Amino acid sequence: xxxxxxxxxxxxxxxxxxxxxxxxxxxxxxxxxxxxxxxxxxxxxxxxxxxxxxxxxxxxxxxxxxxxxxxxxxxxxxxxxxxxxxxxxxxxxxxxxxxxxxxxxxxxxxxxxxxxxxxxxxxxxxxxxxxxxxxxxxxxxxxxxx
Length: 146
Description:
globular, seven-stranded mixed sheet, Aminopeptidase, 7 strands, alpha+beta
């Protein structure tokens, strides 16, 4: 598996393909909500398996968003790998605490990665979410050791 920052037009298209499949097709999120906020501050991260796009996430400042893995590739640790790369990219950009709005049904996934609930359940795109945060200071030392 290869995880990389989307730098080319095709990689950006790949990123939005995953989001469209997962959020618009599977979860019926309105396209105008899903395709928000593409700007120079957003870092798009893609996962490829045998050169085929299989997952994606976005880092926007301290916020991680839009983690998605195509259905046939779930439960293969692709989501974990993407999250680790997003955190590494955050640290390399001087960010040591991150947050995300997790869909409630997958909050256990994020808890296993060290994220903690903050606040109460709220609606985003007509789906129950909870804000979760993680202090990633320790990654500074792990990255330096590599």
